[in-house]
């Protein structure tokens, strides 16, 4: 199929020329970040489109997801499509070292991972020439104009799933309506997280016949993996102590979590908090905060288990949230006491944990409202609210059990939507 550059908007042609010139500079920046995580040089070169694995035989379906959350959200979808399409092979691309590490631990059958090519003619051209995908699925907000146009020109059919754009992004695209229509026209199907995202895509010029509300893909993911050996060791170490978790916390939130735990300890002196920062590399910073509060702690990254004196257990590792969620009945989800947008409530809900959240959950607005309505989650505003909610549940087993059941049932109901997403993708991408 011929390239569309000649009939593309002028801004797109300018973008192609600019990215061709800027690719070496962009590569130096992304390479530096990957080297900081000890990624091998050969794999870093994947960002320039140099593959490190042979292309598989059979039809290849490519999934692209930029971040950790986006990458993990599609693994269950890939596994389900693999069941539906036994001859298909799968490729998942992402941009960060952390996403690559977590994907490697949960790779579905017949799937391989590569770092995504930079959105420039050389990297994208090399990538497509090697992998030759039959179909491509982009996740959430990854609208790379050149990558989309070149992939469509290669003969592959494209879909956008879990679509969600910030208002800033929507406003930016609407300033260039011809280019927005051109980019969105690359997709045969667009499935949005909610009705607002559907309206945003339509306002940007998307074809109404191709845009549908598909729900939040993260709600359809399988429960997080649990390390049974670690779980058993933690259960033995903690016994029947009162326990709660603060997960995926950010700077400015740990202070409030630790302050709330101080109040919990006043009522339950033997209580333990499992604190799992969103970014484990902040371990030293969070440890210092805990010690300034006068609390004893043990650290997962040091291979320690909590003992009878450990008031806080710092879970400063990657990929173990499933184990922590299986351990504790109450989970506070971070990214919500500050204007970060919140994190995935389906993961703790699937584990049967009652959930606490701050008010800033724009990333999951369509999820938290019904979850709170069912009683599976409670919104808190600050450290005082958080402490009161934890104490209320720790002191009342029956309401806590009701909240845990409501959260688990909510997650189970949402998982049933995955079959519909698979059907829509297979039809729109002509995959059988």
From TrEMBL:
Keywords annotated in UniProt: Cell membrane, Lipopolysaccharide biosynthesis, Membrane, Transferase
Catalytic activity: lipid IVA (E. coli) + CMP-3-deoxy-beta-D-manno-octulosonate = alpha-Kdo-(2->6)-lipid IVA (E. coli) + CMP + H(+)
Gene3D superfamilies reported in the protein's UniProt record: 3-Deoxy-D-manno-octulosonic-acid transferase, N-terminal domain, Glycogen Phosphorylase B
Pathway annotation: Bacterial outer membrane biogenesis; LPS core biosynthesis
Coiled coil: none
Enzyme Commission number(s) of this protein: 2.4.99.12
Function, as annotated: Involved in lipopolysaccharide (LPS) biosynthesis. Catalyzes the transfer of 3-deoxy-D-manno-octulosonate (Kdo) residue(s) from CMP-Kdo to lipid IV(A), the tetraacyldisaccharide-1,4'-bisphosphate precursor of lipid A.
Family: Belongs to the glycosyltransferase group 1 family.
Protein name according to UniProt: 3-deoxy-D-manno-octulosonic acid transferase
Source organism per UniProt: Arenibacterium halophilum
């Amino acid at each position: 199929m011929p390239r569309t550059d000649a009939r593309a908007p002028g801004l797109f042609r300018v973008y192609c020329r600019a990215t061709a010139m800027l690719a070496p500079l962009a590569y130096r920046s992304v390479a530096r970040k990957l080297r900081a995580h000890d990624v091998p040089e050969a794999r870093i070169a994947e960002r320039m489109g140099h593959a490190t694995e042979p292309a598989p035989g059979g039809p290849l379906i490519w999934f692209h997801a930029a971040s950790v959350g986006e990458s993990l959200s599609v693994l269950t979808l890939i596994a389900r499509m693999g069941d539906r399409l036994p001859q298909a092979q799968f490729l998942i691309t992402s941009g960060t070292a952390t996403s690559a590490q977590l994907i490697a631990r949960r790779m579905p059958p017949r799937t391989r991972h590569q770092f995504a090519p930079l959105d420039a003619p050389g990297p994208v051209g090399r990538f497509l020439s090697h992998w030759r995908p039959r179909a491509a699925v982009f996740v959430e907000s990854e609208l790379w104009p050149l990558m989309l146009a070149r992939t469509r020109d290669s003969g592959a059919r494209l879909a956008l799933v879990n679509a969600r754009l910030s208002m800033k992004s929507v406003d930016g695209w609407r300033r260039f309506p011809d280019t927005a229509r051109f980019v969105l026209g690359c997709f045969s199907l667009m499935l949005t997280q909610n009705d607002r995202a559907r309206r945003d895509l339509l306002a940007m010029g998307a074809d109404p016949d191709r845009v549908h509300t598909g729900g939040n893909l993260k709600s359809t993911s399988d429960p997080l993996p649990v390390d049974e050996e670690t779980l058993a060791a933690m259960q033995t170490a903690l016994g029947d102590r009162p326990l709660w978790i603060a997960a995926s916390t950010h700077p400015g939130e740990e202070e409030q979590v630790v302050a709330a735990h101080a109040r919990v300890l006043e009522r339950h002196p033997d209580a333990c908090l499992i604190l799992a920062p969103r970014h484990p590399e902040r371990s030293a910073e969070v440890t210092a905060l805990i010690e300034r509060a006068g609390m004893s702690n043990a650290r997962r990254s040091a291979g320690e288990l909590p003992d009878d004196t450990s008031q806080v257990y710092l879970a400063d590792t990657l990929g173990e949230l499933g184990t922590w969620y299986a351990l504790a009945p109450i989970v506070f989800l971070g990214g919500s006491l500050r204007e970060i947008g919140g994190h995935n409530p389906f993961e703790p809900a699937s584990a049967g944990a009652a959930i606490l959240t701050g008010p800033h959950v724009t990333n999951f607005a369509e999820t938290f409202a019904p979850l709170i309505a069912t009683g599976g989650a409670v919104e808190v505003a600050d450290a005082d609210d958080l402490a009161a909610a934890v104490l209320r549940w720790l002191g009342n087993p029956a309401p806590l059990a009701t909240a845990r059941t409501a959260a688990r049932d909510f997650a189970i109901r949402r998982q049933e939507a995955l079959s519909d997403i698979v059907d829509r993708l297979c039809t729109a991408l002509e995959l059988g």
